[in-house]
Input
Amino acid sequence: MSEIEEREVIVENPYHTARFKPVRKGKKPPKLIAVVHQSGCTGCEVCIAGCPVDSIELVPGPDANNPQFQQMVEIDLARCIGCQNCSHDCPWETITMYEHNDSFTAWGNETIKSELYMPSSDLEKMNDKNGISLEPESTEAEATESQATETDA
Ligand code: SF4
Ligand code: SF4
Output
């Protein structure tokens, strides 16, 4: 096997699927937004159950053979309505409510999981194990549309 073939391709951990969910309704943003300090998150999942808008997502750790190792949660700021349930429920007091505008800076400093990367081979293993396809649903429709355009031309 050549040196290039042996090199692993590193891809972004895409298991934070909250980004595919619709953002919250209403024009006025909430006064407060929840930010998880991931350095203190144990991945216990307690906060997830109490979120009324499903904005807290469990993200598996980077080892496909042991996804519960280093698992933690992310909070999708675009969905959070600031109800404070999670900050009250977290047994490790690792979720803080920030003023709306400050929350984005805090998120950037405290929520790191989206920046974690894994070898593509591990990602494939994890997908197979969980029966998950990460292909966007629109791909098939786009392909059909593109074929139709080619046929029309
Ligand atoms: S503050 Fe409320 S809406 Fe926001 S993430 Fe926590 S539980 Fe969900
Ligand atoms: S309750 Fe706290 S420690 Fe548990 S998963 Fe949520 S943020 Fe992490």
Summary: Residues 9-152 form a domain with the Alpha-Beta Plaits fold (CATH 3.30.70.20). The mean pLDDT is 78. The longest strand covers residues 32-36.
